[in-house]
Amino acid sequence: MLMNTVTRVFLKPQEEKELQQGFPWVYDNEIATVKFDAGDGSGIKQTGYSDCCVADGSGVEVYTKAGGFIGTGVLNRQSKIAIRMIGQEHADQIYADTKSFWSKKVRDAINIRKLQYPESDSYRLIFGEADFIPGFIVDRFITMNGQVYLVVQFLSLSCEIFRNELLEALNDNCNPYGIYERSDAKVRNKEGLALKKGWIGKQRDSVITITENGITLNVDLANGQKTGYFLDQKNNRAKLKVFCHGKKVLDTFSHTGAFGLNAVNGGAREVIAVDISPEAVAMITKNITANNAGQVMTAKCADVFDILKQYEESGEKFDVIILDPPAFAKNLKAMKKAYGGYKEINLRAMRLLAEGGILVTCSCSYFFDENMFYSMLMHAAKDSHKRVQVLLKSGAGPDHPVLLGYPKSEYLKCAFCRVL
φ, ψ for residue 193 (rounded to 5)? Predict the structure, then answer.
């Protein structure tokens, strides 16, 4: 891409502040003018954003209103996120050799994980914008026999157009046994992209067996939620163990049973895992068997809201309860309803706990931020007539880095609480 033909996007006044602080997106309503070559021999044109005819997927340079260079991004006029920033270099530096450009970003992400995790560990290898590859997610799973599987998600046009370069970099640096694509998240529709899933390259068995915190886990890459397994809670599951010796534990929204199995590993006397999905309960049951935990742990297929209410009505008590629900608030419009849902399950859990019991409660919704999360817990405690000590505030592991200036990268809240 030559500098005299590159599309230049100029922002409205003051809109550059967040970008200069590290925010990686430009919204369509932040753009003032666009200078581009229409390709018809008429030379460079300047129009408003709505009138420009630049192709989606084009590399564009972003400037302040006054003309200060900010960086290069990828344009997508089908999305409210008009530009996803891919680098602070000029466009000609990036597009002169996109293979080398993306290979370095992939290597950087891999190397920072290698400093923190042993080769035998499963972890998130690339975390989208937080690893400077917008919309691109890669989870690395290593099986019990040492085979490396990668699960990839291309969630935005900004990475979809570079899929060949990114996949080549992964193959060169990871030598995976198999790569499974889970680009089936609905966010792709907002990018003008069709949903897709399936093996890239050789077909493998999509149900694999990994170990985590000394526990054997079967993971369904094709049909499990997101990339098949939630690696972000690994450290929190390990922290749970110290609270579980000799205790009765309820693991809700269990998915694969991982929290519950960590409780078993911590010496729990009884564990009940609950999930609304029959497929999830089948996987939990399989994992219980794989860990010889059948005498301690059972799985139930039920709506968590309903079963918490039933346990409360029957006078059931637990020593430890884990609440790890899906994101109730996926956008700002859902906040009020989400607040009510989070409060209800936490209030009921507090009532179900024995005196001094432990509540491990989580939210993976970015929109339900930390202040709102702990405010909800305070009001749930008040309405359940309990006093609560927060023993530990936690989040995702170091394989999910937080990019300063991009608060969405700090999405997971996990609180270990003592309920009195």
Answer: -115, 140
